[in-house]
Amino acid sequence: MASVAELKAAIDVALQQIGDGQSAVQAAGEKLAEAQQILAGALEGSGHETVEAAQASLTQASQELEECLAATLLAVEQAQLYVATL
Amino acid sequence: MSIVEDLGAQVRAAADDLPLGQLAVALERFGLAAERLRWVRQESADPMGVPELSSAVEHAETAGYALRVAQEQLSAYLAAIGLAADGAPAPRTAPDQRRPAHDAPRTAPAVSGAPEPPADAPAPRWWAVRVAELTGGGTTPPRPDGAVADSGELLRRVVREVRSGDRDRLRAELGRAHADVGLGLAAVAPPLLRELAGELLGHPPRAEDLPRLRRDLAGRVRDLLPGLPAPVLETLLSRVCRMPPPRRGDAEQPHAADPAVTAGVLAGVLLDRLGRELPTADERERRAADGRAAQAEAEERRRAAAERNRAADAEWERRTAAARREADAARARVAAASRHSAEVRRGARPGDDRPAASGGPTEARRDTPGATAAGSPAWRTPYRRDADG
Question: Which residues of B218-257 are buried (b: 16+ CB within 10 A; e: fewer)?
Fold first, then answer.
């Protein structure tokens, strides 16, 4: 049977892992924004449909990253609330 | 480098730099955290943020998919504007290919129709003249050699002479090739360069690897090609690292032969550093196929694991709901038992001198559904069993 200390330690490790993941998602978001900016400059004036589709895909990826980050914030909040009740 | 090649390099660099690596790291971390939290919550009925974490994983997976789609769309765009996958010019089809009349291969049909622009035919054997300039002077064969029939064969010969370190023989091999075969080095060598540089570095070349590649390779290339303008090698190494090439004015545009010769020599230098032979086309295709298969397998494993985790989440939710229902039922039974005990106490005759411990409420509790013989609350057992199980 697990003790409260074990529970807290395990949740702390999980929170640390979520934090690492959040950092990676943030870095991905920054890199994606940079790529979008470079592509917007390079492909300015192009009416090619694949360019528009690629830019739409990148916008979607950016939104998904934001939602991913928001979901992890909620997860962290839930886990921290639980730890506070232990 | 032409404007369209410059554009291609920028688009390719941006597409290659899309943050799929960071997303993979994030997914791995979230997966580990979810696994740990799932283990923890086997001891508790609290969700602890696991459903939210599953949702985050789904968003990250969708983002990764969107990035891969964007990469494919950008590749399609590059192909549509005539650039091959690595940003180099796509090999032109025979009818479109312009061949200088003075340097055309022996098998080439006679040039007819519109005359070539004068700039394309400045002098006889311009290819051999430029090769001689790049390799530091000397003489080149006056006539092209039909034995070097394609760019792959020329690359093999260049690699051999680079390994020998003999600049005169390198000049001779390059100089005896037809111009179109020599220019073809710019198409066959660059994909190999990135692969070999990756082997040298231990990872796919990135922007931060440019100084190291410059330090490790530039000296040897300059020894073999003392007449090479520095920006040509810098551009080539930048493209290996998927970086935009350095900007330069029209006056600094390199000679058409320079990128091709440099790519061939750089491939030879890299192969020599690695102690490897030039891979055949079959070997390269097989290696690429193996890489694609391994990537697909890893993706499939990750997807299956995510699916299993989602199924485990769903099962956990179902069991938690069942446990809550049983807990509610147990509470209702306890409440009923309490009410029944109270009624029994109210209905007991005053002055009854029987000991309460051996009769009365205890007897009634034993008769109450949901109460155990030992007197412990009946809701605990199913609740704990289910919560633990």
Answer: bebbeebbeebbebbbbbbbbbbbbbbbeeeeeeeeebbb
- Looking at residue B351, its amino acid is G
| pTM of structure | 0.43
Residue A8 touches chain B, beta carbons under 8 Å: no
* CA-CA-CA-CA torsion sign (B288, B293, B299, B302): negative
Residues 35-54 of A with CB under 8 A from B: 35, 38-39, 42-43, 46, 48, 50-51, 53-54
Instruction: For residue range B40-51, list pLDDT tens digits in order.
Output: 777 567 778 888
Query: Could B26 and A24 be called an inter-chain contact, meaning their C-beta atoms sit closer than 8 Å?
Result: yes
Question: B177-208 burial, b for 16+ CB within 10 Å, e for fewer?
Answer: bbbbbbbbbbbbbbbbbbbbbeebeeeebeee
- B interface mutation test: which of A3, A37, A43, A50 has the most B CBs within 10 A? A50
The Cα–Cα gap between B86 and B100 comes to 26
Q: Does B45 touch chain A (CB under 8 A)?
A: no
Place of tokens 């928001």: A70
Q: DSSP secondary structure string, B74-123?
A: HHHHHHHTTB-TTSSBPPPPTTT----GGG--TTSPPP-SSPPPGGG-SS
Q: Does the predicted interface ipTM exceed a cut of 0.90?
A: yes
- CB count in 10 Å sphere of residue B46: 16
What residues does B83 pair with on adjacent strands?
B89
Q: Is B38 on the interface with A (CB under 8 A)?
A: no
